Amino acid sequence: MDNAVPIDSPPAPASAVSKHGITTGATIAHQPPPSGTPTPEHFLGHPMAGTFFFDGKPLGGPKTYCTGSVVHTAAKDIVLTAGHCGRGLERATHRIFVPQYRIRRSAVEQPSGVYPVSRLYIDPRYDANTKKPTSDLDLAFAQVDPNTRGKVEDVTGALTFTPTSSYKHKVTVIGYPDDVSVNPDHVPVRCPVSTSQLPGFRQMRMTCTGFYGGVSGGPWIEDYNSTNGTGKVIGNTG
Hints:
The chain is mainly beta. About 5% of the residues lie in helices and about 30% in strands. It is built from 2 helices and 16 strands. It has helices at about 85-90, 150-155; strands spanning about 15-20, 25-30, 40, 50-55, 65-70, 80, 95-100, 115-120, 140-145, 160, 170-175, 190-195, 195, 205, 220, 230-235. The strands form 3 sheets. Strands 3-12-11-15-16-10 form a 6-stranded mixed beta sheet, with no helix packed on it. It starts with 13 loop residues before the first strand and ends with a strand.
């Protein structure tokens, strides 16, 4: 696990999947997508969704790192992301979550500021980058410290964490493609899709073009409000 490499590496269209309940795995598609596959929309994002930076991936640099979303908790300081993203953040000395990230802006100029990641919560059974059953556990919770504006949820709002008992849903999936070659302005993408079961796994599956490295950890939102970004998060991209 210590030497695991996140799957958010070279840009490659991905078919993302998410367990019913709230976790994920992923398969990388190396062939052209089927005719009629949805195409995502680049947009300016929502306050409760953002990306991470850490040692070697500086704020304002050529790459972002994974996607996260603020989920409602009593402590108001929890960000949902992918397990393999959490493994990378675990090893970092300096690590921050940046809601609604804006390229070419300093930390103080970010719409909601930046939030230091203080702790990662990952299921100890999780084995990164595998097709074993433990890929169902590809989720993590990042606990973040407040900044001068307050606790992250008080500043950004939050998605409602919502377990589910079925595989078929209509959701909007949000993520930050990390490389300037495919996302020069480092803005998020969103894609409205229908989900189904990933054969052989307790995970949901969706298909959308344009989901390159960096979208891992992004929320799968049911009853999505496209104006303010609210909704029920029932999974995350693995």
